[in-house]
Amino acid sequence: MKSRGLAIATTLGFALLAGEARATPSRWAKVATPELARAEALADQAEQDLIKATQRRSILDDTLTPSNAYVARARQLLLEAGAQRSPFVRLRLLFAKIEQQLDHHQEASLLFESIVKTTGVADAHRADAWGDLGIVYAHLRLLPREVEAEEMAVALEPLVPNRSLTLANQAEAFMGAGDISRAIAGYKAALEGLTNYEIAAIGPTTFFSLGVALDRSGDLDGALEAVARARSYDPSDRFLRSSSWFFSTPHDAEWYAALGHWLVGRRGDGDDVRLGAYEQAVANWKLYITRAPQSDPYLAVAKARLALCEKELAAFADKVSRPTPIEPPRGNRPR
């Protein structure tokens, strides 16, 4: 599942939030102008820390970066401002996003829930909260609530890229529930209306997930085409390995890896590369089958895929191990 997290919300969602109090000041805001001004200043400062954290993650993208120091500083700043119970929605939303980034999912869910239940909150802000609430519910394994939250987010979301990510997250929820038809439809809907630039920025994981869904529906060739499309934008699967991505069903990582290696096994350059990829694909299928519970709706498909992949591996290994026939020299032959 691809988390919206800070990658999109920082550049788009927070920009919208910044205009909330200024654009439509409430009666409370007019009376409490000093409090509003202070809240805006604190929110601006916390937001800058979150932007710095996101930029560092996008550049280095590993746990060794000091990005969490920025998140911790923003959290402390908002704690001192009483953001958890602040009447200013922007402060509560920022604090909820910080709790989400720090994997405080229960705390984040309560904050997001308080925001979507607050009257008078702009649709764009409510959509932002609903979208992130869906992600938090996914972490908490509250699947029905996740689907409902993402449904609300899609209905309210004015920005196509954010709506796309939410649809993809919801499709992931459908796939986790075993509803593969709705998962495929959801992934395809998530890709509609995106520009080439937006697909390059947020589409690779959706294409890859669509490939997994197609494979689970029985369409292996279509699955590998979707994986190839994902890699046309992201050749090294960087998005799948980023800190903003997580598998709501952990052993699903093996299915993604198996398909990725299988594609190289079929289409890679060089016999050694292809042979190694086939071997790794088989290993990933075995890991999936070992790690999946017996209740997994796709276990039977995984076993069938393992058998087919082993067959292709054996055929390819036999082909590359056979010596190339030596043709007799051409020209005059002895009588």
Description:
- With 335 residues, the protein is mainly α.
- The chain has a domain at 1-158: Tetratricopeptide repeat domain (Serine Threonine Protein Phosphatase 5, Tetratricopeptide repeat, Alpha Horseshoe).
- It is built from 17 helices and no strands.
- Helix 13 runs antiparallel to helix 14 (220-233).
- It is elongated.
Shape: elongated
Mean pLDDT: 84
Question: Regarding CATH, which class of the domain at 1-158?
Answer: Mainly Alpha
The whole-angstrom Rg is: 25 Å
Number of strands: 0
CATH superfamily of the domain at 1-158: Tetratricopeptide repeat domain
Tell me the structural class: mainly alpha
Oligomer: single chain
- Proportion of residues in extended strands: under 5%
CATH architecture of the domain at 1-158: Alpha Horseshoe
CATH topology of the domain at 1-158: the name is Serine Threonine Protein Phosphatase 5, Tetratricopeptide repeat
The termini sit apart by: 73 Å
Main beta sheet: none
Quickly describe the structure.
With 335 residues, the protein is mainly alpha-helical. It has helices spanning 5-18, 20-23, 27-31, 33-60, 67-80, 89-101, 105-116, 123-139, 143-156, 160-176, 180-191, 196-202, 204-216, 220-233, 252-267, 271-291, 299-321. It contains 17 helices and no strands.
